[in-house]
Design brief:
Elements (H helix, E strand, L loop, with lengths): L4 E10 L2 E11 L4 E5 L6 H8 L7 E6 L2 E2 L5 H8 L2 E4 L11 H12 L4 H14 L15 H13 L5 E5 L7 H18 L2 E5 L3 H6 L3 E6 L2 E7 H5 L4 H8 L14 H12 L27 H13 L5 H22 L1
Parallel strand pairs: 3-8, 3-9, 6-7, 7-8
Antiparallel strand pairs: 1-2, 1-4, 4-5, 9-10
Helix pairs in contact: 3-4, 3-5, 4-5
Length: 335
């Protein structure tokens, strides 16, 4: 199973500009989590901090029990082997074939012979649906295929934690859904811990087990999808519905007067944009039929059941209704 990653009170600044402050969260091992937030809130900076590429000014970051803020360079090198990272553009070497791109980490960081490397690379290419394209250059394939090649390379060292930065960047909605399905299928097979940074509302609503939200340089909320999707927190509700009405503005946070003016327009019948609000909790995407049952679903649902008494009556009703299907799925998986 994937390992736990947790932060406690971390703050990151560039010069006089604070990016975020006092961020504390725990990524449950083996579950898929998403980090949301308006542009410029430092979501990618957060990813880079988790693997030690950037260093917060204070706080702690524990990866599988080790605080990377305190460990030695050699310890950090070993801890980074637990991670696989899918960058926005795939970060492929343009002059290398897909095979050589995926093989690169194995040749750099292991002593495996070429026969073993070939076996592993073809295994990951098959997992990401790229068999037959191994001889192509990145410039000869579509953006979606480049994303999948980047994912194959991120998986090649069998990481226990997979970080994904804006997987929908440059992809149309259909291909975004395909790669989202791939994340869930991989999680079903290897039970890795995922953290996905995204702006994509549909992905955030339907894919993850847990959702976090950065806003005004702080982590507004982080928790199971059922809790966030039923939250009355204004910034969470606005973002997940893509509405103009709420604390988030075009370039900065709004003052109370602006929020009241926009709400008055909506009350008068003005359309606030965004996606349609859906009663209850939107069903979560499932792993492809034939894949192992995602154990993360059972773990998350058990955690939510323990939290039910802390939710509002309306949220509790929505969660219980959504679990009417979840119980049946879990029961089938246990047979």
């Amino acid at each position: 199973m994937g390992v736990e990653v947790s932060t406690a009170g971390i703050t990151k600044s560039f010069g006089a500009q604070t990016i975020w402050r006092e961020v504390s969260l725990t990524l449950p091992p083996g579950e898929v989590s998403v980090l949301l937030g308006p542009s410029g809130t430092g979501k990618s900076v957060f990813l880079k901090s988790l693997i030690g590429l950037l260093r917060p000014e204070c706080g702690s970051i524990h990866v599988d029990g080790t605080d990377i803020m305190q460990c030695s360079t050699s310890q950090l090198y070993e801890i980074r082997k637990l991670f696989g990272v899918l960058f926005q553009d795939g970060a492929l070497f343009g002059s290398m074939s897909l095979f050589d791109n995926v093989a690169f980490p194995l040749r750099e960081h292991t002593r495996k012979n070429e026969s073993e490397i070939r076996r592993i690379v073809f295994e990951k290419l098959e997992l990401t649906g790229l068999l037959g394209a191994e001889d192509k250059l990145p410039g000869e394939i579509s953006g979606g295929m480049r994303k999948r090649a980047g994912l194959a390379r991120a998986l090649v060292l069998d990481p226990e934690i997979i970080l994904v930065d804006e997987p929908d960047s440059g992809l149309d909605p259909v291909r975004t859904t395909y790669i989202s399905q791939l994340f869930l299928d991989i999680n079903a097979q290897i039970d890795a811990t995922f953290l996905i940074v995204t702006h994509n509302i549909n992905l955030a609503r339907t894919v993850p087990d847990n959702i976090g939200m950065l806003f005004r340089r702080e982590l507004v909320m982080f928790g199971p999808r059922e809790v966030l999707l039923t939250s009355d927190e204004p910034v969470v509700k606005q973002f997940l519905n893509g509405r103009m009405v709420g604390p988030i503005g075009m370039s900065e946070e709004k003052d109370e007067a602006q929020i009241e003016r926009e709400q008055a327009l909506v009350d008068a019948g003005h359309h606030a944009g965004g996606v349609d609000e859906i009663e209850g909790i939107i069903p979560q995407m499932q792993a492809t039929p034939g894949m192992p049952f995602r154990q993360a679903v059972t773990r998350r649902q058990n955690r939510v059941r323990e939290m039910l008494h802390t939710l509002t009556p309306a949220a509790r009703t929505a969660v219980e209704a959504s679990f009417g299907v979840g119980h049946a799925v879990s029961d089938l998986a246990d047979r």
